[in-house]
Specification:
The strands form 6 sheets. Strands 2-1-3-4-5-6 form a 6-stranded parallel sheet, sandwiched between helices. It has a 5-stranded mixed barrel with strand order 17-18-19-21-20. A 3-stranded parallel sheet has the order 7-10-13, with helices on both faces. The longest helix has 24 residues. It has 3 domains: 163 residues, Methylthiotransferase, N-terminal domain (Rossmann fold), CATH 3.40.50.12160; 244 residues, pyruvate-formate lyase- activating enzyme (Alpha-Beta Horseshoe), CATH 3.80.30; 62 residues, Nucleic acid-binding proteins (OB fold (Dihydrolipoamide Acetyltransferase, E2P)). By secondary structure, it is α/β, with parallel strands linked by helices. It is 34% helix and 21% strand. The protein contains 15 helices and 21 strands. Bound molecules: 5'-deoxyadenosine and iron/sulfur cluster (SF4). The site of iron/sulfur cluster has 10 residues, from helix 6.
Length: 493
């Protein structure tokens, strides 16, 4: 029930799953401070932007969205606006936000999210702005926050922070610092708790999970393979996913553990970035096309039903048509089930920023659309091959028309009819139709279904911290008119 006396929060999340999960931690801090969620900035007593810096397009959007709050702040001077995440972690952006948007109240970074509670109290009690982007390597040991989970049947679990790889295009090592792994005991405790709460999918998160090096309760070093093994041995009906893997660090032990595991999904996200040896070297990826393809083949040998997804950047400085064709060749050889393709975006402070032979936008766009056409053709063919086959599907969400959405072990989604009591359960679904790489299925008759009960997972479609949060931004835009805002504000008070 909505309590009108309670103060309201809205969190706008940009970027990757790591940010979505960190917004769940921010939501936990806000709820501990007596706030409850809302879905529009007009009702909000505090709006938090959890920002992303991976590509320029994200930054432009965020600046625009902060600007859109100006009128709301004029109408509601007591509303608190806080900006955190990868963009504000950088001093030059923190300075720019203060200069361009003086109405912002709190600026914090990625390292000190756990201190947001302190920043909030300081702003409320002193009325003064708080700007604090201090770097703090102890983050992994302080990760015991109340997490307000909003991703339905899936629960994110951080296993490590930061990245040591310094791929030449990437801003992440600059905004998230060096690699720090959480103690294994803390991770196991969190995962056990989630399984007993009924979460059916646990996704282990880190910029490069394969270089996880935590300590066990006796102080012995634990590798990623050992961590996976220990989680896999926990009792319960659940899946384990992990992201993201760097191909250079995906060890034989990890492949072995996955191939023998009960719970670890066979859908593996393995970013290749490029298929050209010249570009891979220039990106500082530390593997060649041949080494990457050998790794894929090794996985396919040990795990015959493995399915791959990947990230690819097109238009990296110096990329010729021949280099790009090497990437297309990798796509055809691996046959990815999904590709996240990106136009190379110059990031200030990275090595690639200064490289010669930057590629023009038109060429980048042409390459990306060619890449996506090749991908679509392959994915469609793979989906057609699935017709008539039955898969175990985790039901993730539903809509009021009785349509269920679920995911296969590979991560591929499927749509089918059924009761909303199926959400949070594994059901067998037969693929009956494929349209433009979208799978449609039918539940295979199963006696168990009639005993399923409705569960209290938050439907990911209903919460207010979704990535990009289009719903809130649309409301925000609709409410731009100051007069209307003031009236709305008066009628609420
Ligand atoms: N430009 C374009 N894409 C990038 N990525 C990281 N940095 C950049 C950049 N500067 C992509 C990589 C990475 C994914 C999360 O984002 O493909 O795997
Ligand atoms: Fe960025 Fe490379 Fe680290 Fe991934 S591995 S976060 S692409 S620097």
């Amino acid at each position: 029930m909505i309590n009108n006396d309670k103060r309201k929060y809205l969190i706008l999340t940009y970027g990757c799953q790591m940010n979505v999960h960190e917004s769940e931690k921010l939501a936990g801090i806000l709820e501990d401070n007596g706030y409850e969620p809302c879905t529009d900035a007009v009702s909000a007593d505090i709006v938090v932007f959890n920002t992303c810096a991976i590509r320029e397009s994200a930054e432009q959007k965020i600046f625009g969205n902060i600007g859109e709050l100006k009128n709301i702040k004029l109408a509601k001077p007591d509303m608190i606006i806080a900006i955190g995440g990868c963009m504000s972690q950088q001093q030059k952006y923190a300075d720019e936000i203060m200069k361009r948007y003086p109405f912002v109240d709190i600026i914090f970074g990625t390292h000190n999210l756990a201190d947001f509670d302190k920043f909030l109290k300081s702003r409320i009690n002193s009325g003064k702005k708080v700007v604090n982007i201090t770097e703090d390597e102890t983050i992994a040991l302080r990760d015991k926050l109340h997490i307000c989970r909003t991703s339905g049947v899936n629960a994110w679990v951080n296993i490590m922070y930061g990245c040591n790889n310094f791929c030449t295009y990437c801003i992440v090592p600059y905004v998230r610092g060096r690699e720090v792994s959480r103690p294994e005991e803390d991770i196991l405790l969190e995962v056990k708790g989630l399984i007993s709460e009924g979460y059916k999918q646990i996704t282990l998160l880190g910029q490069n999970v394969n270089s996880y090096k935590g300590l066990d309760e006796h102080g012995n070093e634990v590798t990623f393979a050992k961590l996976l093994l220990d989680i896999d041995e926990l009792a319960g009906d659940f899946r384990i996913r992990f992201m993201t893997s760097h191909p250079k660090d995906l060890s034989d032990e990890v492949i072995d553990v996955i191939s023998k595991s009960k719970h670890i999904c066979h859908g593996i996200h393995l970013p290749v970035q490029s298929g050209s040896d010249k570009i891979l070297a220039s990106m500082n990826r530390k593997y060649t096309k041949e080494q990457y393809l050998n790794l894929i083949n090794k996985i396919k040998d040990k795990i015959p039903d493995a399915e791959f997804t990947t990230d690819i950047i097109v238009g990296f400085p110096g990329e010729t048509e021949e280099d790009f064709n090497e990437t297309i060749d990798v796509i055809k050889k691996v046959e990815y089930m999904q590709i996240f393709g990106f136009l190379y975006s110059k990031r200030k402070g990275t090595v690639a920023e200064k490289m010669k032979d930057q590629i023009d936008t038109k060429t980048k766009k042409e390459r990306l659309s060619k890449l996506l056409a090749v991908k679509n053709e392959i994915v469609n063919r793979m989906c057609q091959n699935m017709l008539g086959k039955t898969y175990s599907v985790l039901v993730e969400s539903y809509n009021e028309n009785g349509v269920l959405y679920g995911s296969l072990d590979s991560g591929k989604t499927i749509t089918f009819k059924g009761s909303k009591n199926c959400v949070g359960e594994f059901v067998d679904v037969k693929v009956v139709q494929v349209r433009k790489s979208v799978l449609y299925g039918e539940i295979v008759d199963d006696e168990r279904i009639k005993d399923f009960k409705e569960k209290s997972f938050k439907n990911p479609l209903e919460v207010s911290i979704l990535p990009k949060d289009q719903k809130s931004m649309k409301l925000l835009r609709e409410n731009k008119n100051k007069k209307k805002l003031q009236n709305d504000f008066k009628s609420k008070n």
